[in-house]
Structures are given as C-alpha cells and as structure tokens.
Amino acid sequence: MRQLAPLTVYLDGIGLLGPGIGDWPSGALVLTGASPYVPQPTVLPTPGALPAAERRRTGSIVKLALAVGFEATSRAGVDPATLPSVFCSSGADGQNCHEICEVLASSERQLSPTRFHNSVHNAAAGYWGIATGATPPSSALCAFDASFAAGLLEALVQVVVDRTAVLLIAYDASYPQPLHAKRPIADAFAVALVLAPEARAASSARLTATFTDASTDRIPEPQIEALRSSIPAARCLPLLRRLARRETGCAVIDYLDTQRLAVEVVPC
Amino acid sequence: MSAAAPVARSQTDMTALVLTAFTATSCIGRGRLEMLTKLKEEHTGLARCAFESVDLDTHVGEVSGVDAVRLPDGLREFACRNNRLALLGLGQDGFTEAVAQSVSRWGRRRVGVFIGTSTSGILETELAYRHRDPVSGALPDGFQYRGTHNSFSLAAFVRQLLQLEGPAAVVCSACSSSAKVFGTARRMIAAGLIDAAVVGGVDSLCLTTLYGFHSLQLVSPTPCRPFDVARDGISIGEAAAFALLEPLPASLDADAVMLLGVGESSDAYHMSAPHPEGRGARAAMLQALASADLEPTAIDYINLHGTGTPSNDSAESRAVAAVLGASVPGSSTKGATGHTLGAAGALEAVICALAMQHGFMPGGLNTTQIDPALGIRYLRENRRGRLARVMSNSFGFGGSNCSLVFGQAG
Domains of chain B, with CATH numbers? Predict the structure, then answer.
C-alpha cells in the first residue's frame, strides 16, 4: 500500500451566508459566542458582478454561491479570475427544478430555455465564470448530505496535487413543496474557502484532513446544531466554529456512511 | 485567431493509470462486443423517438430493455431508469468481477467511486408530479428522493452494489461530467488517498433534457449529423459506461489501454453556448497534452465532442485546428450513439479504447456533406490503422470543458 500523503493546506479567506448570518465576521461572532444566534430567513444579495442580462436569469442558488465566492476571494486578497474552483451542492436549484417538473406534468410542456440551462447542477459554476472571467478548471460535485466534505476533499486534493490555490464553494437552498416534504432543507446556506498550498500573509490557519471512524462533532449550542443538521452545506459548521475561535484541534465533519472527515486546525 | 491559451497549471506526480477493465452499454449494444460490432458495421442506434409520452419530432438513442432490469433486494430504494441502466451496464464484460479483484488487491476503503451524470433519476420526479395529491399537492408516498432524484443516488447505488467503502462523489457538470471523473480519480490516486477508482457515467432519457434541448432549438428532427454543412442539432441518447482505473502494474499487456492525460478548463463565456473560437476547448486540449507530456503530433485520432449543433462543431473545429492542426483524423460517434450527455465522456473513452485495441477509427455516421468551413479532417467512414495515442473531447453547459488522452502500451 502506498504512503498516504498529508492533505495539508492553508486557509486564506472565508465567505459565509445563511439564516441570520450575513457574512463571515458576523458568523464568527455567533460561533465564538460573542453574539447571540438569532435565526432569520437568509437574505440573498443581488449579484452585481453579473451582466444585467445574466443577472435577470439567476435564481437564489446563484446569488448565494456568488456572494460567498466574492466574500472569500476578497478576504483572501486574490483575483477570483485566477482560481480553479470546486462547487458542491446536494440539490442545486430546487425552485427551478420544481417549476420544470410542474411544466412537464402539464399538457403544454413548454419549457423556457433559461429554466433549462439553469437546471444543470453546475449552473452556479457557469455564472461564476461569467461574473469573474475565471477560465481555470471548475468542478461541480454532489454527495447528498456529504456534499460539503466531498467538495472539501476534492479542493484539498487539487491544492496538494496541482500545487495551486483553489476556491471551494458549498451551497444549498430549500426546495418548495411538494419536494420540500421529501427533502426538507431548512433555508439557504453557503460557505466559501480559499485554500492554498503555502502560507501567505492572508493565511489564518493550517488545515490537515484525514479520514476517521470517529463520530461527527455536534455544535453545543442547540440552535446552531439545528442549523448544522438541517442544511447539507452547513455540515461545515464544526470546522468554522474552530476557525472562529482560533482553536487548535480537530473538527470531525459528516462525510459518507463508512467514514467521516477529520480536519485538524492550527491557527497561524 | 489569438495565440494558444497558456497551460493553466502544472500537474505533478501524475503518472499514467491503466484501465484494468472497461465496459459500455448504449443504443448500439450491451457491452464491448456488441458495441464494437455495430461500430464496425457503421450502424446507428438512433431511431424515431417513442420514449414515454414524448411528442417531439426527434430521434433518440434509447437502450432497449432498461425497464425490465430488476434491482437486487435491499437496493430497491434506488429504483429508477438511471440506476437500472447503471446495473445493466455494470453487468457486462466481467466488470463487476474485475472490481472485486481490485478490492482484494487494495481493500474496500482504497477503491473510490467517481461517476458522472447530468439528470440522474429525475424521470421518477417528472412522473411523480403527474400523480400529486389533488387536494394537498403532495407527491406519492412511494417517491424516493434520495435513491432516485438526487444526483448522488448514482454513486451511492454503484458503491453499495460493488460493496465499496472508499471516497465517492458524483460529478455533475452537464456534458463534461463523465470525462471530468477521470481527472478527479487521477488526483485522488496521485494524492495517495485511494489506490484504484471506479469511474464512469450514466445518463438516461428523461423529459427535462428532451424538452429542454428542444426549447433551446438544439434538437434535430433527423438523426444528428455532426460536422455536416446542414447539421441542425443533437439527437439525445442514453448510456452507462465504466472504467476501473489502477496504477500501472510491473508489466502490461500490449493491448492495455492507459489514461495518459487530463485537461480541464472553463469558458467563462455563456451558460448554453460555447466560446465561438473554442477558447476553453483549446485550453483543455493543451492541458491534456501537457499532462500527458505529449506533442500535438503524437495524437493519431480525436473523438470529437461533435454534437451536431452549428455552434459546437464550429467552435470545436477551430480549437482542434489550433491545437492539433488540420490533418489529424477525427470523428464524432454521436451519429451512432446520440449525445449521451453526462455519460458521453465515459462512453467515448470506451469507444477510444475499443478503437485502439482493434486498430480502427470509427467514421462519423449520418454526415453526407462535410461543412467546408470546419477545416479539420473529419472521417465519414471507418478507417483501419494503428492508434497509439488518442484524444477525446467533452464540453458542457456552463462552459465546462474536459479533454482526455489515452494510449496503448504496445
């Protein structure tokens, strides 16, 4: 068996958006306990970087992904056009999917072309490219509730193997009824991380990931734990909590039924 | 035309991998022998669309007998056309047995599963929406979101069926999906996280893609004619294609097929149209050559993305001419199989492997008059010849591009 290479990277920037959380600094205050967590419906900003024609065509999922992508790259001080990206989501645009299924169940079956091209799982990645001009590779992954960890793993592997900084964007939004009853995702939530192979001035922590049989970390605060468990992208919260508290230690996050992902955090 | 795009990034520690086993099932056959026979006979599997209740004037590449496939007890939650097609495909060519041998070599946790799809089991949801409760609007009780609709259901099904416990993900970047899985698996092996990977793609007919491509006016009423002067759109197909990727053993059979290079890029241009000069396609092809450490002249044949839409074939021909030159023989096999969307990358990888092992270049079917504006050497008929290195292109909505380079050992 071959030697397992350490999956070690440096974290250069974070973007965050979710119910009652407007950005990473406000999320960090909640995760350190400095501010109380007040759950409120997620507020989605308008993606100003997109040309007007594209902006009109985007749904909530694209607004969500682009907002955290711009926040993370801005905090890292990197040009988003230069970064390969990994997008991961359990279900992409649920509202759009619902509307397509309604039309296809009707007698007319007249789909709008925009609705169709927005239905692809990599729609957010496509709009990100148009908004930023980023031509490096972009991956779009799905792993149901393991989507955040699967995306993180893909991003870590790209950083370590290709020796390049990578932007990870994990995002999920609710389905409307009747799909919501079958797949209850509570609200919109997204997180973005800029990960790099070497430490820079912007680096805030060193991360090393390994597979583990240990069980997933829960969040001690019940309302934040409810957030973690009710949106796949929010499975990142044990990791973000350690980062917010600038604690050295290990965060165990949900991955597959057979194993979890342990991420060792060392602030720098 | 602008200068060739710079190579996006270096790829270190990337040694070649061997396709220990590979198989494909499409409208031209179940498994390699049937596929090879139809390719050699220059036989198209496209036929007038009689799928489900679809009322479009189009041709499709439907795999016969999918609905009759029974999933094993214990995996019934995965019951949908896409996973039935996956099971049909996995049952061919001793693929499942080859994976079991790989598990005995490396262990269950050291074999990853990376599969591409664009629509997974969405057909189940489309059908369920016809049977909503008239009062509450609820979907039928038996509807299984996780096992059918969710994109990951495909990888979860394959992983459970093959009893694998390594890392897994579905790559879901439209029509580049099952080309990009080769890149994901290669990086995971290079990082030492796994020793082997089951890669592939499965996409199945559904109303979303048939009516969706129709709404974009990208579906041809006739069997698709890639690179024809009168080409007028795609024919949608379905397929299941798989490969088992492993490190090179100490000695290789002369006809063993290797994955030599992977190149990926983004157009950053438009959601559903390629960059007109094939900017992203060019970058992906250059990166694939760089990662294989090959000169453009080393490529003996290119299996084109060649969808048969005016814009794809125009943009792709510019990219191919810029990177490989105008004399490399190329063809699109979508005239035989249809455009199998998220399965196209893996299906055409298997076709490339068959072409190398059997010494022929498959001609592009249905094309009668090659568009003179597309200045590359497009093959309309099969040609014999030894192929040492071949390239395969896959491009998807959202400007997602992937090129693969395969080679033969001997």
Answer: 17-408 (3.40.47.10)
Residue B335 zone, left/alpha/beta (φ > 0; ψ -120 to 50; rest) = alpha
Mutate to test the interface with B, among A100, A135, A153 (most CBs of B within 10 A): A135
Taking the whole predicted model, whether its pTM rises above 0.95 is answered as: yes
For residue B49, what are the CA distances in angstroms to A43, A165, B121, B298, B397? Answer: 45, 46, 20, 40, 24
Q: Is residue A2 part of a domain?
A: no
C-alpha distances out from residue A261 to A8, A172, A212, B183, Å: 13, 20, 6, 22
Are B244 and B95 in contact by the 8 Å Cβ rule? The answer is: yes
Q: Which two tokens stand for residue B366?
A: 């249905």
Rounded to the nearest angstrom, the minimum Cα separation between B164 and chain A is 9
Name every chain A residue with its beta carbon within 8 A of the beta carbon of B109: 211, 258-259
Closest approach of A3 to chain B, Cα-based (Å):
6
Range(s) of the domain holding residue A125: 7-267
Q: Are A189 and A91 in contact (CB under 8 A)?
A: no
- pLDDT tens digits for chain B (410 residues)? 333 333 333 344 468 999 999 999 999 999 999 999 999 999 999 999 999 999 999 999 999 999 999 999 999 999 999 999 999 999 999 999 999 999 999 999 999 999 999 999 999 999 999 999 999 999 999 999 999 999 999 999 999 999 999 999 999 999 999 999 999 999 999 999 999 999 999 999 999 999 999 999 999 999 999 999 999 999 999 999 999 999 999 999 999 999 999 999 999 999 999 999 999 999 999 999 999 999 999 999 999 999 999 999 999 999 999 999 999 999 999 999 999 999 999 999 999 999 999 999 999 999 999 999 999 999 999 999 999 999 999 999 999 999 999 999 87
| Torsion (CA) B223, B350, A124, A180 in degrees, nearest 10 | 90
Whether residue A116 is contained in a domain is answered as yes
Query: Using CA atoms, how far apart are residues A268 and B3, in angstroms rounded to an integer?
Result: 42
Beta bridge partners of A156: none
Tokens of residue B76, six digits: 């019934």
Domain count, chain A: 1
Q: Please name the residues between 144 and 203 in chain B that touch chain A, using a CB distance below 8 Å.
A: 145-146, 149-153, 155-156, 165, 167-174, 180, 183-184, 187-188, 190-193, 195
Partners of residue A84 in chain B, C-beta under 8 Å: 8-9
Question: In A, which residues are within 8 Å of B142 by CB distance?
Answer: none
Q: Does B52 touch chain A (CB under 8 A)?
A: no
Q: What is the CATH number of the domain that holds A57?
A: 3.40.47.10
> Do A150 and B190 count as a contact with CB atoms less than 8 A apart?
no
- Across the interface, do A125 and B180 touch by the CB < 8 Å criterion? no
Contact at CB, A116 and B268, closer than 8 angstroms? no
Cβ-defined contact of A101 to B191 (cutoff 8 Å): no
- Nearest Cα of chain B lies from the Cα of A36 at a distance, in angstroms, of 34
Domain contains A220? yes
| Residue A98 forms part of a structural domain | yes
Asked whether the beta carbons of residue B279 and residue A120 sit closer than 8 angstroms, the reply is no
Inspect the interface and report whether the beta carbons of B173 and A125 lie closer than 8 Å. Answer: yes
Report H helices in chain A.
24-32, 52-57, 60-76, 94-105, 113-118, 123-132, 147-162, 179-182, 222-230, 237-245
Catalytic residues of B: 175, 305, 339
